[in-house]
Recover the amino acids of this structure.
């Protein structure tokens, strides 16, 4: 089963992606991880991507598409895959459509105001990467290693709100695109992790 997962930053998309991949034994392909891995491995595509990232620029569509195309050729994608963070726009979706068939485009429909509030309450451990919320970590310390938790710059409210605005503008045409193809599955993302997952599994069956 070839699945695409779409959802705003902070919608819990990554968590759901991990759960789906584990249950269906398919690889979780995230553009971010793929970029990091190619850069770490020093591949030709990774080197090219790095020059853009070092300059603080977005990695161009063609390069991201080349990375994804290369990854989808791997053996572990034979029985399906889950794409997370790709396609990001209609142009990428068109290119992807030429490479592989998408069986399901999952869209986690989440209240953006709630996401903004949730993201702004996120606290991370600068030492071990443990992530939690201000509500859960009342003492402000990492449960794993005891370090003082911080708010990442990315999680500051104005930054979050801007990212969500950009996301909403970019994703609307993408959602329409997959709807028109008859593969869009919209799941209510304003639920607990387990309830969202139960809805996803019900839809995939
Ligand atoms: Zn820690």
């Amino acid at each position: 089963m070839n699945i695409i997962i779409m959802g705003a930053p902070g919608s819990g998309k990554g968590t759901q992606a991990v759960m789906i991949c584990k249950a269906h034994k398919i690889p979780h392909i995230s553009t971010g991880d793929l970029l990091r891995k190619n850069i770490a491995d020093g591949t030709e595509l990774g080197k090219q991507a790095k020059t853009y990232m070092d300059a603080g620029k977005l990695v161009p569509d063609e390069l991201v598409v080349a990375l994804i195309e290369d990854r989808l050729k791997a053996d572990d994608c034979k029985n399906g895959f889950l794409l997370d963070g790709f396609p990001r726009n209609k142009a990428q979706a068109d290119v992807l459509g030429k490479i592989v068939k998408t069986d399901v485009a999952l869209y986690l429909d989440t209240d953006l105001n709630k996401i903004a509030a949730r993201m702004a309450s996120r606290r991370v451990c600068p030492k071990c990467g443990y992530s939690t919320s201000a509500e859960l970590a009342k003492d402000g310390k990492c449960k794993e290693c005891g370090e003082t938790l911080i708010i990442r710059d990315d999680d500051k409210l104005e930054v979050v709100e801007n990212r969500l605005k950009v996301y909403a503008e970019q994703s609307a045409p993408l959602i329409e695109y997959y709807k028109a193809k008859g593969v869009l599955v919209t799941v209510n993302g304003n639920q607990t992790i387990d309830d969202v997952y139960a809805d996803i599994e019900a839809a995939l069956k």
In short: Residues 157-180 form the longest helix (24 residues). The chain has eight helices and seven strands.
